[in-house]
Amino acid sequence: MSVVQRFDGLEREVREGFGEKIVALRREIHREPELGFDTEKTAAKVLAALDGLPLEIQTGVAENGVVATLEGEGEGPTVGLRADMDALPIHEETGLPFASETDGKMHACGHDGHTSMLVGAAHALSGMRHRLNGTVRFFFQPAEEGEGGGKVMVDAGVADDVDSIFALHLWPGLPFGRAATKAGPIMAAADAFEMTVKGAGGHGAMPHLTADAIAMAAQIVTALQTVVSREVDPVEPAVLTVGEIGAGTAYNIIPETARLGGTVRTLNEDLRRRMPERIEHLARGIAQGMRGDVQFDYEFSYPVTVNDEYAAWRALGVAGDLLGEDNAIELTNPSMGAEDFAYFLEKIPGAFIWLGVGEDVSGLHTPTFAFDEEILPLGSALLTALALESLSS
Ligand code: NI
Question: Residue 288: helix, strand or coil by DSSP?
Answer without folding.
Answer: helix
